[in-house]
C-alpha cells in the first residue's frame, strides 16, 4: 500500500539520501518530510496551542498550576493527541494494507510498504520531539524519561533500514492505553481525585493496559522472536516468493547481532517494565479510592 501522506519533497529527499544510504537507512528519505512534519505539529501543540487553550478552557485550574506542572500538562496534551492519532492510523493500516497483511517471513523482516512506513515516520517524529523536550527540561522530567525517549527514537529510526517494518504498526498499539493514563493525570490536576469519572477511567486504564501491553505485547513479542529465529536459522533453506515491490528497499538483508540484541532485549525489558508499571498503576488507583488516603490533588 502506498504512503497516503503527501508525496516526499524531492529537494529534501535528495539532501538526506547520501547520509541515509551511508547509515543503511534506505527508506528514511521517503519519510523525512513526515518525520519533520510530525515534529513541527507536536512542537506547535506543546508551545503554542496547549498553554493558551488550557488557560481559556480551564482558567481556574491550569493557571494555578506550578511552572513544572504546566510543562507536564502541556506534554500530556501532546501525548493525548499523538496516542489517539497514531493508534487510529496503525489500526487503519493493519486493516487496509493488503500487501502488509500477506507478507511472508522475508517480507516481514526486510520488506516495506509506504503506509506502514508512514506510521513509523510519524512515531519517529513524535519521539524526536519528545527527546528535544526531555533534553530541554531535563531537570523536570529526569534521566529516566530522557533514556526512554532516546531508546524509542533509536529503535524506530533503525526500522528504516528497513527492518521489522511490518511490526511498526503492531507495537504502536501499546499506545492504546496512553489516553486513559493522560486523563488519569488530568483528573488529579482538575481536583477530581477519587471521583466516579476517575474510577471508571482507572478501570479502563488497567483493562486496556493489561490487554494491549501484556497480552497483545507478549503475543506480538513471541511472533517477532519466532520470525527472527526463523530468519537466522531456517530462511537459508527456504526459497521465498517475495514480491519485488515490497523488497525494493531491502538492500541490507542481514540481522547483525547488535540489532537483534537491541530489538529483542528491548522487548524483554519493556515487558518487564509493563508488569512493574501495571502494579504501580493498580496501587495508585487503590490509594485514590481508599477512605484513609489523603492525596495532594496537585501532586506531580
From TrEMBL:
Keywords: Membrane, Transmembrane, Transmembrane helix. It is found in: Membrane. One of its GO terms (cellular component) is membrane. The keyword Transmembrane applies. Residues 68-290 form the TLC domain. The chain crosses the membrane at residues 35-58, 78-97, 109-128, 140-158, 164-187, 199-219, 255-278. It is a multi-pass membrane protein. One of its GO terms (biological process) is lipid homeostasis. PANTHER family: CT120 PROTEIN (PTHR13439), TOPOISOMERASE I DAMAGE AFFECTED PROTEIN 4 (PTHR13439:SF0). This is Putative TLC domain-containing protein. The lineage of its organism: Eukaryota, Fungi, Dikarya, Ascomycota, Pezizomycotina.
Amino acid at each position: 500500500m502506498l504512503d497516503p501522506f503527501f508525496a516526499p519533497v524531492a529537494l529534501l529527499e535528495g539532501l538526506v539520501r547520501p547520509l541515509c544510504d551511508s547509515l543503511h537507512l534506505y527508506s528514511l528519505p521517503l519519510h523525512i518530510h513526515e518525520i519533520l512534519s510530525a515534529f513541527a505539529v507536536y512542537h506547535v501543540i506543546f508551545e503554542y496551542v496547549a498553554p493558551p487553550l488550557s488557560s481559556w478552557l480551564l482558567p481556574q485550574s491550569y493557571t494555578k498550576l506550578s511552572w513544572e506542572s504546566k510543562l507536564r500538562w502541556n506534554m500530556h496534551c501532546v501525548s493525548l493527541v499523538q496516542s489517539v492519532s497514531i493508534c487510529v492510523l496503525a489500526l487503519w493500516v493493519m486493516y487496509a494494507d493488503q500487501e502488509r497483511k500477506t507478507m511472508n517471513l522475508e517480507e516481514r523482516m526486510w520488506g516495506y510498504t509506504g503506509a506502514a512506513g508512514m506510521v513509523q515516520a510519524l512515531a519517529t517524529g513524535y519521539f524526536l520531539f519528545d527527546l528535544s523536550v526531555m533534553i530541554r527540561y531535563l531537570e523536570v522530567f529526569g534521566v529516566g524519561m530522557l533514556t526512554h525517549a532516546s531508546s524509542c527514537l533509536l529503535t524506530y529510526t533503525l526500522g528504516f533500514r528497513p527492518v521489522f517494518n511490518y511490526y511498526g504498526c503492531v507495537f504502536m498499539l501499546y499506545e492504546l492505553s496512553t489516553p486513559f493514563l493522560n486523563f488519569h493525570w488530568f483528573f488529579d490536576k482538575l481536583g477530581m481525585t477519587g471521583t466516579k469519572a476517575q474510577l471508571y477511567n482507572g478501570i479502563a486504564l488497567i483493562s486496556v493496559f493489561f490487554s494491549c501491553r501484556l497480552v497483545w505485547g507478549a503475543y506480538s513479542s513471541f511472533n517477532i522472536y519466532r520470525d527472527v529465529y526463523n530468519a537466522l536459522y531456517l530462511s537459508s533453506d527456504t526459497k521465498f516468493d517475495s514480491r519485488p515491490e515490497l523488497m525494493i528497499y531491502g538492500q541490507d538483508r542481514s540481522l547483525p547481532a547488535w540489532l537483534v540484541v537491541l530489538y529483542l532485549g528491548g522487548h524483554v525489558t519493556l515487558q518487564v517494565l509493563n508488569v512493574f508499571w501495571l502494579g504501580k498503576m493498580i496501587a495508585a488507583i487503590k490509594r485514590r479510592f481508599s477512605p484513609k488516603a489523603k492525596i495532594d490533588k496537585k501532586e506531580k
